[in-house]
Automatic annotation (TrEMBL), chain A:
Binding site for Na(+): 69, 72
Name of the protein this chain belongs to: Fluoride-specific ion channel FluC
Keywords, sorted A to Z: Cell membrane, Ion channel, Ion transport, Membrane, Metal-binding, Sodium, Transmembrane, Transmembrane helix, Transport
Task of the protein: Fluoride-specific ion channel. Important for reducing fluoride concentration in the cell, thus reducing its toxicity.
Organism of origin: Luedemannella helvata
Keyword ATP-binding on entry: no
Membrane-spanning ranges: 32-52, 59-79, 91-116
UniProt entry tagged with the keyword Acetylation: no
Catalytic activity: fluoride(in) = fluoride(out)
Family: Belongs to the fluoride channel Fluc/FEX (TC 1.A.43) family.
Gene: crcB_1
TrEMBL record, chain B:
Record InterPro entries: FluC, MFS_trans_sf
Activity control mechanisms: Na(+) is not transported, but it plays an essential structural role and its presence is essential for fluoride channel function.
Family recorded in the similarity comment: Belongs to the fluoride channel Fluc/FEX (TC 1.A.43) family.
Described purpose of this protein according to its UniProt entry: Fluoride-specific ion channel. Important for reducing fluoride concentration in the cell, thus reducing its toxicity.
Chief site of localization: membrane
Name this polypeptide is given: Fluoride-specific ion channel FluC
Residues binding Na(+): 100, 103
Keyword Metal-binding: yes
Native source species: Luedemannella helvata
Key words of the record: Cell membrane, Ion channel, Ion transport, Membrane, Metal-binding, Sodium, Transmembrane, Transmembrane helix, Transport
Keyword Protein transport: no
Reactions catalysed: fluoride(in) = fluoride(out)
Length: 121, 151
């Protein structure tokens, strides 16, 4: 059952990253990877929320490990950082790292606080 | 005119072939991403179950998953840009799907928060910095070594 929930979450999360990334790029032409930053922040917010729910066993597997895990990515983030540095856009490379880490941690914390507020903890 | 080398390995709309890859039907690309994402996610989960960490401890399994996934995206993108593999679905399946599903940013940031709130601020900071440094070094090494071998 766990593996089925994981697979279902991942089967939706991975193409969702691709489609959101495309949608962001189509509306905002830039070499800065706004699309990946957006999915990583959104996924961190959602995982923080799931992590703050009490006893969220199957939900945590489906939405957390499966969907959020596949929606967010470290490989894309680090490859983009390397490519920006190679293209001479060192400021963008550094900004990508700083923005991803700071906004990601912030989003995770906000998600956690939201879950605690909703569940009255 | 040569195509610009992509910045975003998932999809970069500056590359004409990637801009057009959902036509005539988006199904092959999306199905490849989906299938790859399931494989990568199951691998990440398997490693996390085999190698659990105590609350406030260093999340070794996610660290190893993220750094190894970064090494592999460096290798894969070099193989694809050198045109060694021309299978149309190689990037969607292996890069967007398998490696995107295998690595995770959300678990990384939530584990940093968990370690910090468990009173292990030092572990949280060490994990934050070690993953960043390891990931960037790994993607660079994977890319540089593969380009060198293939040229």
């Amino acid at each position: 059952m766990t593996l089925l929930l994981l697979a279902l979450g991942a089967a939706i999360g991975a193409p969702a990253r691709y489609l959101v990334d495309r949608a962001v790029q189509a509306r905002h032409d830039s070499i800065f990877p706004w699309g990946t930053l957006a999915v990583n922040i959104a996924g961190s917010l959602l995982l923080g929320f799931v992590a703050g729910l009490p006893a969220a066993g199957p939900v945590s597997i489906l939405v957390g490990t499966g969907f959020c895990g596949a929606l967010t990515t470290y490989s894309t983030f680090s490859y983009e950082t390397l490519r920006l540095a190679q293209e001479g856009a060192r400021f963008y490379a550094l900004a990508n790292v700083m923005a991803s880490v700071v906004a990601g941690i912030g989003a995770g914390a906000v998600g956690l606080l939201l879950a605690w507020t909703v569940t009255g903890r | 005119m040569t195509e610009p080398a992509p910045i975003d390995p998932d999809v970069d709309l500056h590359v004409a072939a990637e801009r057009a890859e959902l036509r005539p039907s988006p199904l092959p690309v999306l199905a490849a991403i989906s299938a790859g994402g399931v494989i990568g996610t199951l691998a990440r989960y398997g490693i996390s179950v085999a190698w659990p960490h105590r609350p406030g401890g260093f999340p070794w399994s996610t660290f190893v998953v993220n750094v190894s996934g970064c090494l592999l995206i460096g290798v894969l993108m070099a193989v694809l840009t050198e045109r060694v593999v021309t299978w149309r679905l190689a990037r969607p399946f292996l890069g967007v799907g398998v490696l995107g599903g295998y690595t995770t940013f959300s678990t990384y940031v939530v584990d940093i928060g968990r370690a910090a709130s468990a009173g292990s601020a030092g572990t949280a900071l060490a994990y934050l910095a070690a993953t960043l440094a390891g990931a960037v070094a790994a993607v660079w090494a994977g890319s540089a070594l593969t380009h060198q071998v293939l040229r």
